[in-house]
């Protein structure tokens, strides 16, 4: 809450604004992106007409590359691990060339003496459609986009009220209509929110959000599930527990993509929905990126977020043990 910066309506818009400023002020035109990334970051870089060069990761998620002058380097703090803290700047890399995606780690204590620009999406840890970066912006508010955001907030309230009575009054037709309405509004927001600064409503919601509850609940769920599964699986972000980090998911690494897909499909049939973080990039030759290929195809991200409690975690553990 004490970090100065600018709010936007999603993480894409926050990155878009940073890249626009870097291109205009510093004349950067090339960006190094990790080969393990989400497509939205690639889309934003392309919109700003950056030449994209993909780099590989070391096993501790730090970049394995030699950067060039006059280029940007985008780092991702993966799965609650503050990877960017392990970066050592070379003579060819200055702090104004580095941008860090902290969408997975913005609830961790923020310590850095490197003066990197960073951004994050609020949606990773909350239901807020919002993004932030720690720089200033020349972007202005837009009444049309503000209205879309306010409609999303109202739709989320409608959903919350419905969920309170879902066991007694479930209405599948209404659920589908509500989901369709939300997705339609969100698509419109994404397509119209570049170069738009968020209104005071988002900033106030961010400040009043119960982040302490979210942090405590996630850590408690994560610790329970780690203790249930640590002797059966490799847990990629196990150190989240030792280092007291706030986890995004519990990330399992399986022996094969087939095993991952079998477990995931069975979990979905039991109303447990593990997301894929992230699918492979179609244009990339993964013969050069074996570690990234394994991350895309062999990892399983188990939900541990604040909507769930220990009873839910026990159910997830029970179902996984039944499957294996």
Distance between the termini: 43 Å
Q: Main sheet? A: 8 strands, mixed
Radius of gyration: 20 Å
- Given as residue ranges, the uncertain stretches (5+ residues, pLDDT < 50) are none
Overall, the morphology is globular
**Tally of separate helices:** 10
Give, in order, the helices and strands. Answer: EHEHEEEEEEHHHHEHEHHEH
Mean pLDDT: 91
Number of strand elements? 11
Query: How big a fraction of the residues is strand?
Result: 5-15%
How would you classify the helix and strand content by structural class?
alpha/beta
**Strand order of the biggest β-sheet:** 1-8-7-6-5-2-3-4
The portion of residues assigned to helices is 40-55%
Task: Provide an overview of this structure.
Helices cover 42% and strands 15% of the residues. It is built from ten helices and eleven strands. Strands 1-8-7-6-5-2-3-4 form an eight-stranded mixed sheet. Strands 9-10-11 form a three-stranded antiparallel sheet. Helix 1 runs parallel beside helix 2, helix 3 runs antiparallel to helix 4 (172-192) and helix 6 (211-229) runs parallel beside helix 10. It is globular. The protein starts with 5 loop residues before the first strand and ends with a helix.
What is the strand and helix layout of this fold?
Elements lengths: L5 E3 L2 H16 L3 E5 L4 H9 L3 E7 L5 E2 L6 E6 L21 E4 L15 E5 L9 E3 L9 H22 L7 H21 L7 H9 L2 H19 L4 E2 L3 H4 L6 E5 L3 H13 L20 H9 E5 L6 H14 L1
Parallel strand pairs: 2-3, 2-5, 5-6, 6-7
Antiparallel strand pairs: 1-8, 3-4, 7-8, 9-10, 10-11
Helix pairs in contact: 1-2, 3-4, 6-10
